């Protein structure tokens, strides 16, 4: 039969038959070989692993401190004065660092804080602003847009402990 009269499928089938005849193997035989190779590799890897080795878990453990999310969302709606009173009562150290910028309250640290500090701030309703490197509380005025200006210059700022 001439190749011009054969369909594309027939041509490929013919080439496959020639290849199988040449190598003396079928596709099934090739698959079985690969499975055996993979099985042998797995056995070698397991044999090389010490018996007392601890199996690595694919699940990551969450090291963050647990926070009361209901309290967090309630605290995010607090007004500036109410939040400052809460800081003064519950966390006097944070109150000393609290800077009021417009209606928002910012707290900045020189270094990275431990998980316990960040969880307390988060539960109080603060969120981390990576651009300004500050913990910020919106005091009920949550906006969708990011400020492209310096809020301290536009709205002014003061430290709450100095006003008290």
3D architecture notes:
The protein has 164 residues and is α+β, with helices and mostly antiparallel strands. 49% of the residues lie in helices and 10% in strands. The protein has a five-stranded antiparallel sheet. β3 (127-129) and β4 (134-137) form a beta hairpin.
List descriptors.
164 residues, alpha+beta, five-stranded antiparallel sheet, 5 strands
List how many beta strands DSSP finds. 5
Main pleated sheet = 5 strands, antiparallel
N- to C-terminal distance: 101 Å
What structural class is derived from the secondary structure elements? Answer: alpha+beta
- Give the helix level as a range of percent: 40-55%
Helix-strand pattern: HHHHHEEHEEHEH
Q: What Rg is obtained from the alpha carbons, in whole angstroms?
A: 33 Å
Binned strand content: 5-15%
Shape: elongated
If strands are numbered along the chain, what order do they take across the biggest sheet?
3-4-2-1-5
What quaternary form is this? single chain
Q: Ranges with pLDDT <50 over ≥5 residues?
A: none
| Average pLDDT metric | 80
Number of helices: 8
């Amino acid at each position: 039969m001439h190749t011009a009269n054969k369909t594309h499928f027939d041509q490929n089938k013919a080439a496959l038959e020639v290849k199988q005849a040449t190598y003396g193997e079928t596709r099934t035989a090739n698959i079985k070989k690969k499975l055996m190779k993979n099985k042998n590799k797995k056995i070698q890897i397991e044999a090389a692993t010490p018996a007392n080795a601890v199996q690595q878990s694919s699940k990551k453990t969450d090291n963050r401190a647990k926070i009361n999310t209901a309290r967090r969302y309630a605290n995010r709606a607090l007004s500036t004065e109410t939040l400052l009173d809460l800081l003064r009562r519950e966390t006097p150290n944070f109150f000393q660092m609290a800077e009021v910028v417009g209606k928002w309250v910012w707290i900045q640290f020189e270094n990275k804080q431990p998980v316990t500090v960040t969880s307390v701030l988060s539960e109080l309703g603060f969120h981390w602003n990576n651009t300004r490197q500050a913990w910020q509380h919106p005091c009920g005025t949550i906006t969708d847009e990011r400020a492209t200006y310096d809020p301290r210059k536009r709205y002014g700022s003061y430290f709450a402990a100095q006003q008290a």
